[in-house]
Design brief:
alpha/beta
Length: 296
């Protein structure tokens, strides 16, 4: 790690692994690294970038901070503890889907993963039998276009090709398609990675602001302040978001986060240009040492 890199609290510090399972998948090299502190805990890395952490014994244990923030959103969608219809764009090790299955039994969930070999690896090595999770091997946007309108209570975007969100999942057209898939009162949540003055994140908030009546942003103060690269969770709905409850939960996390309400989020977006399909770019590459990414 370079001297000027700061360890990212969204990714646990490396320790001696209990075991390492390596496999070539369709879009890179996958590693499942055993958590030395948890007998059935595993971290999934793709080409050296940490993608997911799961504990097969305890799906409520969420190692990555941004996943905890997404879980707060899950907890507050609709009626607490009632089943949800959830569409997860981006599979990884299905961490959030496992959490939903545990906290909202009976939920109908579909995980969309473009890498079929990765989906097979996770299914065989990190099984989620009886969880109600189904997996579709597809491009995320293609699957979203094919989704029935107004049929989803929760739509989560957490897609990375290596360490970057693909360009076609960053545009106003994509967000508008996501909005059409949501049932009344449904919630869209996206994991956005950025750093510095957050130019990419501002475009993503601007795209959501153009499609939804209410938006919010959850992020660590040092990320919002441009002091390090990290994750922001973008939340949007046509109903009023539970910002006060999100704020309380985010403030109680080990790494506390700030929640921007609708007015603050739109101010954050400022004059950022809303990205469109023509000319869109992927999210920025994180610096070496962040998200477990090794130096080139």
């Amino acid at each position: 790690m370079p001297d000027d890199a700061v360890p990212d609290p969204d990714v646990p510090a490396p320790r001696d692994a209990r075991a390492v399972i390596r496999a070539e998948v369709d879009h890179g090299h996958a590693e499942l690294v055993g958590d030395p502190d948890r007998p059935h805990g595993w971290t999934l890395l793709i080409d050296g970038t940490a993608q997911s952490h799961v504990d097969l014994d305890d799906p409520l244990h969420l190692e990555f901070e941004y996943i905890r923030r997404l879980a707060h959103v899950v907890d507050l969608v609709g009626v607490p503890s009632r089943p949800l219809r959830a569409l997860h764009l981006g599979g990884g090790a299905w961490t959030l889907a496992r959490y939903v299955a545990a906290t909202r039994p009976g939920s109908a969930q579909r995980v969309v993963e473009i890498d079929g070999a990765l989906a097979d690896l996770v299914r065989s090595r990190l099984p989620a039998d009886g969880s109600g999770i189904t997996v579709t091997v597809s491009d995320a946007r293609a699957a979203l276009i094919g989704a029935a309108p107004a049929a989803v209570d929760l739509l989560v975007l957490d897609v990375f090709a290596g360490a970057r969100t693909p360009a076609h999942l960053t545009t106003a057209e994509f967000v508008a398609t996501a909005a059409r898939a949501l049932a009344p009162g449904g919630v869209y949540a996206a994991n956005v990675a950025d750093g510095g003055v957050l130019p990419f994140a501002r475009t993503q908030v601007a795209a959501a602001a153009a499609a939804f009546a209410d938006i919010a942003v959850i992020a660590a103060p040092d990320v919002l302040g441009g002091r390090r690269f990290g994750n922001l969770v973008l939340v949007a709905s046509d109903d009023e978001l539970p910002v006060d409850a999100l704020t309380r939960r985010a403030a109680g996390d080990p790494f506390r986060a700030r929640v921007l309400d609708d007015a603050e989020s739109r101010e954050f977006a400022g004059r950022a240009q809303v990205p469109h399909d023509r000319g869109a770019t992927p999210s920025p590459m994180p610096p070496p040492g962040f998200f477990g990414r090794a130096a080139d």
